[in-house]
Prior knowledge:
The protein has helices at residues 11-29, 37-44, 48-56, 70-80, 96-103, 140-144, 157-169, 196-209; strands at residues 34-35, 68-69, 87-92, 112-119, 128-129, 132-136, 148-153, 174-177, 190-193. By secondary structure, it is of the alpha/beta class. The chain binds adenosine-5'-triphosphate (ATP).
Amino acid sequence: MDNIDQTKIPQATAKRLPLYYRFLESLQASGKHRVSSSELSEAVKVDSATIRRDFSYFGALGKKGYGYNVNYLLTFFRKTLDQDEVTRVTLVGVGNLGTAFLNYNFTKSNNTVIDMAFDVDHDKVGQNIGNVPIYHLDDFKEKIGPNVEVAILTVPSHAAQGIADDIVEAGIKGILNFTPARLSVPDDVRVHHIDLSVELQSLVYFLKHYPM
Length: 212
Ligand code: ATP
């Protein structure tokens, strides 16, 4: 397992890993040592051919009649997803959505922790929500330090690009963008865009046009 080149794992596969990871962890917790691809497929809603292909990238070849070894897979996933190290995350914009994230305990299902948040609203600055202190955005550079890897952006869209520039300047390489704004960032910064209203609209569209 040590000599698997993790850069060779396709991005689509890498994106599914947390899904697999969460389910396998619950299997392990319930004392199961093996799982078939059809069982996994049913649980994570990914077809079993895709699962087999995903797993083949890291040398987990299921045996006929046995399936996959849960511990082997988990060890691999932990390594790949860096579950052994805590990833520090910051959040900018403590509105309704931002507040929900601060109250949500991400550490339960993966080793990420939001350890500070920023806003410009003086009523919010100085407070703690979900044990996370809220600072003024003016103090971003000073407070952020070198070890924060990801920023969650839950500000109004007109403020998004300016804040993204600050985030980039602070050396943060990952942005989870919940605003509708399309962000321009340098090539070495990764933005994952989650526009909840677009997702909802697209789900409604699929339900209407492609009923199952
Ligand atoms: P609320 O009801 O608390 O205003 P909301 O989610 O409806 O929540 P938004 O207008 O989307 O409000 O703003 C989200 C948060 O972003 C708010 O807490 C707001 O104070 C903050 N915010 C607005 N502009 C900026 C900015 N330029 N930089 C940082 N935070 C900002």
